[in-house]
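Preliminary data (for renewal application), flavin-adenine dinucleotide complex.
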Amino acid sequence: MAVMEPTSIDSGLAAALAERLDGEVIAPTDPAYDDARSIWNGMIDRHPALIARCRGTADVVAAVLFARERELPLTVRGGGHNVAGGAVADGALVVDLSQMRAVHVDADARRAWVQGGATWADVDTETQRFGLAAPGGVVSQTGVAGLTLNGGVSWHRRKHGMTIDNLVGAEVVTADGRVVRATATENADLLWALRGGGGNFGVVTAFEYRLHELGPEVAFLFVPYPVDQAAEVFRAYRDLVASAPDELTVDFGIERFAPDPELPPELHGVMYAGVFGMYAGPVEEGLKALQPYRELGTPILDATGPYPFTGVQTMLDPKFPDGVRRYWKALYLDSLSDEMIDAAVERAVTMPSDGTLVFMRHLGGAMGRVPAGATAFGDRRAQFMLSIDSSWIDQADDDVNVEWTREFWSAFERWSGGRTYFNFAGQHEEGDAALRASYGANYERLVDVKTKWDPDNVFHTGQNIRPRAAR
Ligand code: FAD
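Predicted structure:
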């Protein structure tokens, strides 16, 4: 990939944009440039033409209009956590929302108003002051924007639904630089599309979420079992979750212990098969509901207990530091047969990298009861999501890790019908086929909304839904 040489044209462009912006404009000549263009996935090494660090909605409007006038491709950066790296592109103008992270909670109305560059840490800190929570992600540094626009699966998804099921409104800067609100009564087609249709429809400068009572303490499950018991534990897990109440979300994973100083050194690097989960309800009730998951085999250790909800939300952060190389892919499964379990275990234990995680999320509950047409996200019948999260350090190991992930994913594709979670979509290699399979009957409706709101396909990163004229 050619590295852009800083030129006087770049400085002229940067100066012209800076005149219109309250926030900072970062050009390739700027010492802050390399830092500003890097995102969470260390595999992504892209060189935008300009980065517009917007301070507010007016800056976003100015940046969008500038990109259009100068015919620069445009990308939007929320939390910068997307594995495919849609926040940055070579030669693009990046609308960087990292300075727009305000959160306002209306505890009486049980609503949170959240700016488009906020992370889940920002949201949890404010909402938990009132004993409330919005269903977000399970790692605190993930951006609310990307996560919400593609669905959003949290530890309380089975009780409170996906993030999009709690998105009641949004402020959006459109492709022609207007600022509009999207709610159930105002631009309802746009709100419908934002609930799962990705970043295709405009820059979302604020999200409004419905909040739920949760915490301050919750019962959390973490029990790792020896990996040679993986298939039995996995089967027992599958059988147990079939009758789990909505309050309970339990996932199964295979990975290695990190070299964590709090763990005995003999466990460092040891592979295990673990269950992880949370009960969205009273702690005592939760501990009772979690008990059977602590007896699926002979545990290596058992860290189950009451935890502050904010602690649960940051617990996994150390596993996912910035800058590591990643390739993650996911797919949906309507059910989990013994054959699938054996195939998953057989492949997982061959993971080429110490940092990799193979994760089975249990879906259903409240998130599963939302009709397919109610949100752009589509069909909710899947009971599980398999996520193959490869993480490694050396560039020299790229091919082996990417190929391993793709082969694993391909082996399961026949069971998923090609339906994928666009927040964990590798590099979107499946293109249109994944769009059609995942959105199903909603796809043509999404194309209509796209054609109305972004006929020139200004917002084209991630899973691009192309407007009719551009197809
Ligand atoms: P960004 O990289 O900033 O943006 C992602 C995409 O959205 C880009 O294409 C971007 O252009 C577009 N975009 C960003 N902001 C806006 C905006 N304001 N308006 C319009 N378009 C915008 N997902 C879950 O559902 N649950 C989890 O528990 C979860 N855990 C995760 C843990 C880790 C460590 C990581 C890396 C990811 C996790 N994810 C999870 C996936 C996560 O939801 C996606 O990576 C998501 O895209 C991240 O959003 P972001 O704003 O940080 O990303």
